[in-house]
Amino acid sequence: KSKDGTYQSIVHNPFLDSYAQVSEITTLRTESGLFKAQAKITNTSTGYKTINYRFCWLDKNKMVVDDTSSPWQTVALEGKETKYIYAVSSNPNVCDFSLKLLNDVRD
Hints:
- By secondary structure, the protein is mainly beta.
- 0% of the residues lie in helices and 50% in strands.
- It has strands at 9-12, 20-29, 35-43, 49-58, 73-77, 82-88, 96-103.
- Strands 1-7-4-5 form a four-stranded mixed beta sheet, with no helix packed on it. The protein has a three-stranded antiparallel beta sheet with strand order 2-3-6, with no helix packed on it.
- A hairpin with a 5-residue loop joins strand 2 (20-29) and strand 3 (35-43).
């Protein structure tokens, strides 16, 4: 459970544990009332990696909100590099999220 009371989860392929680390998950409400989520992702290996990710938006009952504002995206990371990934929901009923990660099948 995060400091703001949300229950984020990270869903991933266990293969990613060998080179990807997610930390510093933060959330906020934008001025227009939309939910914004951010996560720090680090490539712990020394080689170049690409990771596919998607934020899945949830309502107060932890049900998935049909939200097309968060498609699958790819982040490229050099060895030992860290980047922040984020998304903003387009639905004001969103209260939480899960972050889905997949290794790039082209690796």
